[in-house]
Amino acid sequence: MRVGFGLGSNLGDKPANIREALRRIEAQGLARLEKVSQIYRTPPWGDLDQGDFANACAIGDTALAPYELLAAVKKIEADMGRAPTRRWGPRLIDVDILFLGDHAIDDPELTLPHKELFRRGFVLAPLAEIAPELVLDGVSMREALAGADATGVRPWSDKESPTHP
Question: Is 41 a catalytic residue?
């Protein structure tokens, strides 16, 4: 079943945190990743009193059911050292399930497609990079990105410090 992940980090070596989470997704058999976006530098969203984020998206295939996959990505976050913080606050790693096949779920534990997907330029930019024709809720990712605020979202430069904005 097709699956999309959104990844973010704004603590430590942000790009390395994303690469490690992607490595673990494959190494632990959560998904076979077929497409991975470049890493983007993005301003904080929601809670603005924190450093810039590194964000990326990946698409692949999984055999896991929705709640099995959710538990597995939460375990990766915990194993990598993610600590509880304020809502939209700083985090070492965040792994969101953006979509899973054609599952439509809306409960407090899991919402698919991801409930904030169409409002987040920092997710739509990398997702549209690797899957511009992907259609979720009747909208292609290219169209969704064109209608979203992606101010400040830009490819991560290797010349930039991995830990500071």
Answer: no
